[in-house]
C-alpha cells in the first residue's frame, strides 16, 4: 500500500514538473498567451497548493509581457496612422480585455507563503469602442472599394466584409442593402436547358426533376440555376443537357426447363428374419427400416426482360465570352428483369432455390415512359456528380 501511494505521489510530481517545464518553454519562446492559458488551467484545479507557486509566478511574468507586447504594438499602429491598422488595433484591445477576463475568476491569487500576486487590471471599454468604431468605418470604405470594381469575385469579397460589419454593429448605415446588392452582383447566374434529340418523349415529370437543380444538394452559395431565364438578369453561364439517344429494347420472355430428381425417404417397414418374424433390438423393440423412393419433377424458369439505354452529354458554356467550357458524357442503362418458376411433378424433388422462385409470378411489363422514368434516378445521380466535380470557376 505504501509503495502504491509513493508511486502515485511521484507521478503527480512529475506531471507538475512537466507542466512547469512547458510553461518555461512557452515563456522562452515568447508564447505568452499559451503560458497564461496553461497556468490558469492548472490553477483552476486548486489555487492553494505549494505545487502552484511556480505557476503563479510564471502567470505574473507571462501576463506582464503579453500586455506590454500588445500595448507597444497598439502604440506603433496608432502612430503609423494607416486606416487599415484599425482591424489589428481593435483585436489587440479585445485580447487585452479577454486576458483580464480569464484571470478575474482566480483573483485574489495567493501563493503558499501568503503573498498575493499582483496584476495590473485596466478598463479598456472606451478604447475598445473607439477601435471598433474606427474598424467598422474602415471596413465600410473597404467594402465600397471592392463593390465599385464591378467584378463578380470583388463583389463576393465586399459581401463578406458587409457581413462582418453587421456582426460588429447591426444596422450600421445602409450595410444591409449593400450586402444584398453585393450578394446579387457576386452570384453566378446559370441558365439551364434540356434538349431532347433522341426521337423519344421524355416524361414531363422527369424533365422537371432534371431541371430542378435545387434537388442536387450542391450547397453552392454563389450560384443560382434558372430554367426560365429572367429579363433582369445577365446570365454568365449556361448548362445544357443533351439527350441524343433513348433506345428501348423490346419486351423479351425466355424460358428454360430443368429436370429434378431426388431420392427421398418414403415411409418404413419392419426388419424380418429368415422365418418372416420381426427382428428386435437389444431392448426388445421392433427394428424399423426406412423406405426410399425416387421422385421427379420438371421446373420451368421464365425470365422477363426489358431495357432502356439513355445517352447524351452535359454541355458547359461561358455566355459572356461566348466559348465552350467542356462536355461531359451522361449515359445510363436501366434493365427491368423478373424471374419466376412453375413446376410439374412431385414438389419434393425441387431444390430450395426452386421453391423460392415459385413464390414469384408474371409481372406486366412497364411502359416505355415508365422505363425512362426508372432510368431517371441514375441519370440524376450521374448529373449530380458532373455538377459537383466540374465547377463553373
Task: Explain how this protein is built.
Strands 1, 2, 3, 4, 5 and 6 form a six-stranded mixed sheet that branches. A hairpin with a 4-residue loop joins strand 5 and strand 6. Helix 1 runs antiparallel to helix 2, helix 4 runs antiparallel to helix 5 and helix 8 runs parallel beside helix 10. The chain has 393 residues and is an alpha/beta fold.
Q: Number of folding domains?
A: 3
CATH T-level topology of the largest domain: Double Stranded RNA Binding Domain
User: Could you estimate the helical fraction of the residues in percent?
Assistant: 40-55%
Identify the CATH class of the largest domain.
Alpha Beta
Second CATH tier, the architecture of the largest domain: 2-Layer Sandwich
Structural class: alpha/beta
Radius of gyration: 41 Å
Spans with pLDDT under 50 lasting ≥5 residues? 1-17
Q: What is the chains' assembly state?
A: single chain
How confident is the prediction overall: mean pLDDT?
89
Number of helices: 10
Q: Characterize the main sheet.
A: 6 strands, mixed
Portion of residues in beta strands equals: 15-25%
Structural shape = flat
Which structural traits does this protein have?
25% strand, disordered N terminus, 10 helices, alpha/beta, 3 domains, 393 residues, Double Stranded RNA Binding Domain, 6-stranded mixed β-sheet, single chain, flat
Task: Summarize the structure in short.
The chain is 45% helix and 25% strand.
What's the arrangement of secondary structure elements?
Elements: H1 2-29, H2 32-44, H3 53-80, H4 86-103, H5 125-147, H6 152-168, H7 175-185, E1 188-196, H8 204-211, E2 223-226, E3 237-248, E4 252-270, E5 288-318, E6 323-345, H9 352-358, H10 368-389
Parallel strand pairs: 1-2, 1-3
Antiparallel strand pairs: 3-5, 4-5, 5-6
Helix pairs in contact: 1-2, 1-3, 2-3, 3-4, 4-5, 5-6, 6-7, 8-10
Amino acid at each position: 500500500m505504501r509503495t502504491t501511494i509513493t508511486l502515485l505521489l511521484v507521478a503527480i510530481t512529475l506531471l507538475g514538473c512537466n507542466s512547469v517545464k512547458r510553461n518555461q518553454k512557452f515563456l522562452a519562446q515568447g508564447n505568452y498567451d499559451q503560458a497564461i492559458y496553461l497556468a490558469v488551467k492548472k490553477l483552476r484545479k486548486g489555487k492553494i497548493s505549494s505545487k502552484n507557486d511556480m505557476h503563479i509566478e510564471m502567470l505574473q511574468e507571462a501576463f506582464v509581457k503579453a500586455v506590454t507586447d500588445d500595448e507597444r504594438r497598439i502604440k506603433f499602429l496608432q502612430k503609423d496612422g494607416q486606416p487599415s491598422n484599425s482591424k489589428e488595433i481593435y483585436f489587440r484591445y479585445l485580447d487585452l480585455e479577454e486576458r483580464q477576463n480569464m484571470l478575474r475568476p482566480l483573483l485574489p491569487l495567493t501563493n503558499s507563503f501568503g503573498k498575493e500576486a499582483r496584476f495590473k487590471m485596466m478598463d479598456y471599454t472606451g478604447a475598445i469602442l473607439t477601435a471598433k468604431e474606427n474598424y467598422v468605418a474602415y471596413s465600410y470604405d473597404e467594402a465600397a472599394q471592392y463593390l465599385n470594381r464591378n467584378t463578380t469575385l470583388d463583389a463576393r469579397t465586399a459581401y463578406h466584409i458587409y457581413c462582418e460589419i453587421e456582426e460588429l454593429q447591426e444596422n450600421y448605415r445602409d450595410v444591409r442593402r449593400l450586402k444584398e446588392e453585393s450578394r446579387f452582383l457576386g452570384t453566378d447566374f446559370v441558365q439551364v436547358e434540356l434538349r431532347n434529340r433522341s426521337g423519344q418523349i421524355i416524361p414531363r415529370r422527369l424533365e422537371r426533376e432534371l431541371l430542378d437543380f435545387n434537388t442536387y444538394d450542391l450547397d453552392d452559395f454563389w450560384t443560382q440555376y434558372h430554367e426560365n431565364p429572367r429579363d433582369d438578369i445577365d446570365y454568365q453561364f449556361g448548362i445544357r443537357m443533351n439527350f441524343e439517344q433513348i433506345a428501348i429494347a423490346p419486351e423479351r420472355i425466355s424460358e428454360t426447363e430443368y429436370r429434378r430428381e431426388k431420392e427421398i425417404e418414403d415411409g418404413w417397414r419392419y426388419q424380418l428374419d429368415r422365418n418372416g418374424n420381426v427382428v428386435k433390438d437389444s431392448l426388445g423393440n421392433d427394428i424399423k427400416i426406412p423406405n426410399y423412393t425416387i421422385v421427379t419433377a420438371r421446373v420451368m424458369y421464365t425470365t422477363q426482360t426489358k431495357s432502356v439505354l439513355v445517352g447524351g452529354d452535359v454541355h458547359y458554356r461561358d455566355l459572356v465570352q461566348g466559348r465552350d467550357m467542356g462536355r461531359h458524357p451522361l449515359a445510363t442503362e436501366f434493365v427491368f428483369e423478373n424471374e419466376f418458376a412453375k413446376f410439374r411433378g412431385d414438389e419434393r424433388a425441387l431444390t430450395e432455390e426452386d421453391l423460392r422462385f415459385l413464390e414469384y409470378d408474371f409481372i406486366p411489363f412497364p411502359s416505355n415512359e415508365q422505363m425512362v422514368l426508372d432510368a431517371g434516378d441514375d441519370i440524376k445521380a450521374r448529373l449530380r456528380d458532373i455538377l459537383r466535380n466540374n465547377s463553373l470557376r
